[in-house]
Design brief:
Layout: E1 2-7, E2 13-18, H1 21-28, H2 32-43, H3 45-52, E3 69-70, E4 74-75, E5 78-79, E6 86-87, H4 95-112, H5 117-140, H6 146-168, H7 170-174
Antiparallel strand pairs: 1-2, 3-6, 4-5
């Protein structure tokens, strides 16, 4: 199980609860609100207490989980970036970063010339996304071994730092 708090915009916060797909299907699917509250309370009683007096600003959304996948990311006259080009569990909240990264990679590939630009973009996207994609799937499995989960989060952090360094070099590539 997992629960977390993600600041968003206009002073709002996204509070999420996550559990293994089997538990979601067996216990929570038909009563998302109470299942959500139960998972939050199991993960963090203080967060559950704070939520009891908080004002909800949207609907509850249940997501039973789904295996990640890559789509073909480009073809004659079209290209996909971010979530449109591949799906991974939203647990790591990395989707917008993928979109920005892919847009930069696509612009870089097109800037090199049309001959193989889209093929080069797809190869660069797959290489850039691969490790974070794999780690996200592993983390989203919510395996009960806390030490293993911590290690995967450390690897994810290292990979995101590597990705940030690569993104900082995009301007140099364009020059």
């Amino acid at each position: 199980m997992a629960a977390g708090v993600i600041p968003t915009n206009e002073g709002r916060t996204c509070v999420f609860a996550a559990t293994r797909a089997q538990r979601f299907e067996n216990e929570l699917r038909h009563d998302i609100e109470n299942g959500y509250r139960r998972v939050i309370a199991e993960c963090d009683p203080d967060l559950a207490a704070a939520l009891a007096t908080a004002r909800r600003d949207g609907a509850y959304h249940g997501f039973p989980g789904r295996a990640g996948f890559f789509r073909r990311s480009a073809g004659p006259g079209w290209a996909l970036v971010g979530d449109a080009g591949y799906f991974k569990d939203p647990l790591t909240a990395h989707g917008i970063t993928d979109a920005f990264r892919d847009a930069e990679l696509l612009a870089w590939a097109i800037g090199k010339g049309p001959a193989k630009a889209l093929e080069e973009y797809e190869a660069a996207r797959d290489e850039a996304a691969g490790t974070i994609f794999e780690l996200t799937d592993q983390i989203a499995a919510l395996e009960p071994d806390l030490e293993s989960l911590k290690a995967k989060h450390r690897l994810l952090n290292e990979e995101m730092a590597r990705e940030a360094r690569a993104a900082a070099s995009f301007d140099a590539r364009a020059a």
